[in-house]
Design brief:
Helix content is 51%, strand content 6%. The protein is built from three helices and two strands, in the order E-E-H-H-H. By secondary structure, the chain is mainly α. The protein is globular. The longest helix is centred in the C-terminal third of the chain and has 20 residues, at 50-69. The protein has one domain (5-69): Winged helix-like DNA-binding domain superfamily/Winged helix DNA-binding domain (Arc Repressor Mutant, subunit A).
Length: 71
Amino acid sequence: MGIGITVDPEIVSGTPVFQNTRVPIQSLFDYISTGESIESYLEDFPYINREQVNKVLKLAGKLLLNTSRTK
């Protein structure tokens, strides 16, 4: 199973979104950056599930760690 992210120019102008939704991935990071909890995010976006959130956060962590190792 993939990471659950869709990037398609026909969906929200190519903004990365949670698969099978129009919810931008950025919205999750916006919530976290303002101190909101993941639980709050899931309540506000009931069509996103915890597994999707966990996959996105895991991918972001891997990308961050890989980027820091290459510098």
